[in-house]
TrEMBL record, chain A:
Residues 386-395 have a biased composition (Basic and acidic residues). One of its GO terms (cellular component) is chromatin. Keywords: DNA replication. Residues 373-395 are annotated as: Disordered. The lineage of its organism: Eukaryota, Fungi, Dikarya, Ascomycota, Pezizomycotina. It comes from Penicillium nalgiovense. GO terms for biological process: DNA replication; maintenance of mitotic sister chromatid cohesion. This is Sister chromatid cohesion protein Dcc1. InterPro entries: Dcc1. Belongs to the DCC1 family.
UniProtKB/TrEMBL annotation, chain B:
PANTHER family: CHROMOSOME TRANSMISSION FIDELITY FACTOR 8, CTF8, CHROMOSOME TRANSMISSION FIDELITY FACTOR 8 HOMOLOG (S. CEREVISIAE). This is Chromosome transmission fidelity protein 8. Keywords: Cell cycle, DNA replication, DNA-binding, Nucleus. Residues 16-28 have a biased composition (Low complexity). GO terms for cellular component: Ctf18 RFC-like complex. It holds the Pfam family Ctf8.
Length: 395, 152
């Protein structure tokens, strides 16, 4: 057999070498990056303070790759093989050196510089992407970053959030957006996931104490809800049909409260956005003008919020029948039948004894779901750093 | 460092590895990419004697053309590849790499299980930014050691 006739390409090594990183793409990322208007991606890691506040048990230091909607954890995988990046040679090869490869004179086509490729970089590791079983959520980070809003609207006198008389009108949506985006910069998940978390928590921006981002406590959310139902009933607003959020806000205010509302309008809007029908929810960048509520989902949210507000821990558990009664009392008359324990979201409550009930924080819920799969994933993560395993996979 | 941008495209195609002055890509069509970059995997590494004291370290900030030089290492061959029949992929099963004149490795061309994005620091940018230079879908893979050959 002779390889004499076949096409041979001179192979060279270029110095200085260039610096490259190799990133293994998932199918979705490949599609995104090859699309016509591919978005700018971000490599995000939490700020030092956030990294200490929200500890990730699976990784000490980490960087996440974020597309506009999705988040991936980056893992650097070492390989015993070396990956060289090649490109066509520009012909800067010393002709004298060619005889290392080919005897002078006899080499014919080989000496042509346009028949060469050259190694310009060497990588001994690649970056792999993965999504942990629970996915990524902005909520733990937001909970640490946002200030807790916990003023009871039924308190008298000292509720004033700064001098409301001088606060000239609410913040523009642009300023609110900037405040939110600044906060999300430090949160190592995608923009969509940040916005999702923001919405879930009913977070809002308020300027009375200087522009700040807040998350309302369960108690505050419940207070907003109660005022909202009261107002709607008084003004004859049907919450299941489309209503103007502006009308709802007016109905919430008592006559003497125009100047000093019980809570910021932004908070009402955040709550309405959280519980309105998802398909009708405008993007976070837009004001919410119209909304309507779904009886079932809304009831569920109210039940969960009530429980979180009144029985946040096992030691503060309340009687079940007492809870059900109070839950029903929070709802518009026609929705009362919806309030049953089976309607509550999975795992959101616990019963210390058969007659009582208390709230379970979302992180603890996930924990109970995950305990079974956690050791398996930990073992898997370990294995991928093991080159024996890596090589086995390659065969 | 909270956030570093990763640009989906190369900022400066002129300065990039693919330029109008770049010669033809001699690799089989399947291995060719718009930028000309390709991947080659070896078990082990290529040791090149360092003839220059400032090499190795300062590569990221260098402007390429001024002081690069290439050291010949060997030859690549795709013995079963024919330009006349580019759709046939049987040729992928065999690739040779000669190191010097008397050693040869046998390998193959493989489709990567997942495409690989080649990233690098964006050069003409103030903030630290990365960019995707190329997305590569195949690699030339030599998993065996070199064997001696007497006649090239």
């Amino acid at each position: 057999m002779s390889t004499q006739d076949s096409h041979s390409i001179l192979f060279t090594h270029t110095r200085p070498q260039e610096g490259f990183r190799l990133l293994e793409l998932t199918p979705e990322l490949e599609e995104l990056l090859t699309s016509k208007d591919a978005p700018v991606l971000e490599l995000k890691s939490p700020s030092t303070a956030l990294a200490q506040a929200v500890v990730d048990p699976t990784a000490h230091d980490y960087v996440n790759l974020c597309t506009p909607t999705q988040t991936y954890r980056i893992r650097q995988v070492q390989s015993s093989n070396s990956l060289h990046v090649l490109r066509p040679s520009r012909g800067e090869i010393s002709q004298a050196d060619i005889k290392v490869v080919e005897e002078a004179g006899e080499s014919g086509a080989l000496n042509l510089p346009d028949e060469a490729v050259t190694a310009i970089a060497k990588c001994s590791s690649a970056l792999e992407l993965h999504i942990p079983p629970g996915g990524f959520s902005a909520i733990p980070f937001l909970e640490k970053s946002l200030r807790l809003y916990d003023r009871r609207s039924d308190d008298d006198g000292d509720i004033a959030m700064g001098g409301s008389a001088d606060s000239t009108g609410p913040l523009g949506s642009k300023e609110m957006r900037t405040a939110r985006e600044n906060m999300c910069q430090d949160i190592p998940v995608s923009t969509t996931q940040c916005e999702q978390g923001w919405m879930e928590l009913c977070a809002f921006v308020d300027e009375t104490e200087g522009v700040a981002c807040w998350r309302p406590s369960a108690r505050s959310r419940l207070a907003v809800w109660k005022r909202l139902v009261e107002g709607a009933v008084l003004q004859g607003i049907d919450l299941e049909k489309q209503f103007l959020v502006g009308d709802l806000w007016k109905s919430v205010l008592d006559d003497d409260e125009e100047a000093e509302p019980p809570f910021p309008r932004a908070l009402l809007e955040a709550v309405v956005r959280r519980i309105c029908i998802a398909d009708e929810r405008p993007p976070l960048a837009d004001d919410i003008k119209w909304a309507s509520f779904d009886k079932v989902e809304c009831t569920q949210w109210v039940g969960e919020t009530y429980l979180a507000a009144t029985a946040p821990t096992t030691s503060s558990a309340i009687g079940r029948s007492e809870f059900l009664r109070a839950w029903k009392d929070c709802l518009p008359e026609t929705w009362r039948v919806e309030a049953t324990l089976s309607k509550l979201p999975n795992g959101c409550y616990n019963s210390p004894d058969p007659t009582t009930i208390c709230f379970v924080e979302p992180p603890q819920r996930q924990l109970t779901n995950k305990t079974a799969s956690a050791p398996a994933t930990a073992a898997k993560a370990k294995n991928t750093r093991n080159w024996h395993e890596l090589l086995k996979g390659r065969r | 460092m909270p956030s570093i941008k990763l640009q989906p495209h190369c900022s400066s195609p002129v300065k990039a590895t693919a330029t109008a002055s770049t010669p033809n890509n001699p690799l089989p069509t399947l291995l060719q990419t718009p930028s000309g970059l390709a991947l080659l995997e070896l078990q082990g590494t290529i040791n090149v004697p360092s003839g220059n004291e400032e090499d190795d370290i300062d590569y990221s900030s260098m402007d390429i053309p001024a002081s690069t030089f290439e050291t010949p290492i060997g030859k690549l061959m795709f013995p079963d590849y024919s330009v006349h029949n580019p759709d046939d992929t049987k040729w992928m099963k065999r690739a040779y790499m000669y190191i010097g004149r008397y050693q040869r490795m046998t390998g193959e061309v493989k489709k990567l299980p997942r495409p690989i994005a080649v990233l690098r620091k964006r050069q003409a940018s103030e903030d630290e930014e990365l960019e995707v230079v190329e997305i590569v879908r195949y690699k030339i893979f030599f998993k065996s050691r070199p064997e001696p050959v007497t006649n090239v």
